[in-house]
């Protein structure tokens, strides 16, 4: 005997199925395993970090210390260029912010840095457009290759290792401290440059300590290697100093008050056995 489902039963079944789909999250199940972790790159099943309300943005910008190199003070893009050497073509707005000008490409500092302390303030577009990785996406890269993700992660589901303040494709932040679309956000990052031997082998990896809107979300977390999408990051030997890069991902993200303090390297060839997690 075949049971005829009433319309209410059909509706409940459809809602249940949709709920199951939503619970599956965003990400991939066919990417390689991350070394030393139970997760794949951009793992669809990796839990997102807890949401923490950082409070409202300060009305004042954090002033640059006297020993800082000011990379953007709201007036000029002289410190920046495109990868092909062109002067930076992003837009300087009347309020003292600069905004990604679509399709002009990434910009990077003319000056190179090694280990450093970076302060950067950014805001995703106030008008929400897109979802997941297509919403307010940019990134800040050290040496042009080690990325701290910038993304509108306020009520925006994406894979855990791709949300705001993640070491992209490697580690999610310990908390989602994002403010809403259009609100100013801050990253304070201590970046420790990797060290390579004369033969190009890795002596000590790169590390990042990241404070997002006043909340510690990475504490001296190790980079697996240079940032990659859908693949495991790897190291390739490079010079002891490199550019700081801001990504043009096609979204009109804004930036202001960017400064950096170069730090003295404290690594030696004797400390490479002490960097595990």
SSE blueprint and pairings:
Blueprint: H1 7-23, E1 69-72, E2 80-81, E3 91-92, E4 98-99, E5 107-109, E6 116-123, E7 138-142, E8 146-150, E9 185-192, E10 195-196, E11 202-204, E12 207-212, E13 215-222, E14 244-246, E15 254-262
Task: Indicate the percent of residues in helices.
Answer: under 10%
Q: Count every helix, treating DSSP H or I runs of 4 or more residues as helices.
A: 1
Q: H/E element string?
A: HEEEEEEEEEEEEEEE
| Average pLDDT reading | 89
CATH architecture: Sandwich
Q: Please identify which CATH superfamily we are dealing with.
A: Exo-inulinase, domain 1
Radius of gyration: 21 Å
CATH topology: Jelly Rolls
What proportion strand? 25-35%
Main beta sheet strand tally, sense and closure: 8 strands, antiparallel
Structural class: mainly beta
- Under CATH at level 1, the class stands as Mainly Beta
Shape: globular
- Measure the end-to-end span: 60 Å
- Segments where pLDDT lies below 50 for 5+ residues? 1-24, 267-277
Number of strands: 15
What is the count of distinct domains?
1
Features of the shown structure:
277 residues; mainly beta; Jelly Rolls; eight-stranded antiparallel β-sheet; 1 helix; 6% helix
Characterise the protein shown here.
This protein is mainly beta and 277 residues long. The chain is 6% helix and 25% strand. The protein is built from 1 helix and 15 strands, in the order αβββββββββββββββ. It has one helix spanning 7-23, and strands at residues 69-72, 80-81, 91-92, 98-99, 107-109, 116-123, 138-142, 146-150, 185-192, 195-196, 202-204, 207-212, 215-222, 244-246, 254-262. β7 and β8 form a beta hairpin. The protein is globular.
């Amino acid at each position: 005997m075949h049971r005829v489902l009433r319309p209410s039963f059909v509706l409940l079944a459809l809602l249940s199925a949709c709920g199951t789909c939503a619970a599956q999250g965003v990400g991939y199940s066919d990417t390689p395993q991350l070394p030393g972790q139970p997760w794949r790159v951009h793992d669809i099943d990796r839990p997102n970090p807890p949401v923490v309300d950082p409070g409202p943005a300060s009305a004042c910008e954090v002033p640059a210390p006297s020993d800082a190199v000011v990379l953007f003070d709201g007036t000029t893009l002289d410190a920046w260029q495109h990868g092909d050497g062109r002067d930076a073509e992003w837009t300087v707005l009347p309020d003292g912010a600069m905004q990604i000008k679509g399709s002009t490409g990434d910009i990077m500092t003319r000056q190179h840095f090694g280990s450093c302390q970076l302060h950067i303030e950014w805001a995703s577009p106030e008008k929400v457009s897109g979802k997941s990785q297509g919403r307010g996406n940019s990134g800040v890269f050290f040496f042009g290759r080690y990325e701290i993700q910038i993304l509108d992660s306020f009520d925006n589901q994406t894979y855990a290792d791709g949300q705001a303040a993640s070491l992209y494709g490697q580690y999610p932040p310990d908390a989602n401290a994002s403010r809403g679309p259009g609100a100013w956000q801050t990253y304070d990052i201590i970046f420790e440059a990797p060290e390579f031997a004369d033969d190009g082998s890795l002596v000590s990896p790169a590390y990042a300590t990241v404070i997002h809107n006043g909340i510690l979300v990475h504490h001296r977390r190790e980079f697996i290697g240079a940032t990659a999408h859908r693949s495991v990051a790897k190291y390739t030997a490079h010079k002891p100093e490199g550019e700081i890069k801001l990504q043009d991902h096609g979204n009109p993200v804004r930036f202001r008050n960017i400064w950096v303090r170069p730090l003295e390297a404290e690594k030696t060839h004797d400390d490479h056995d002490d960097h595990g997690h």
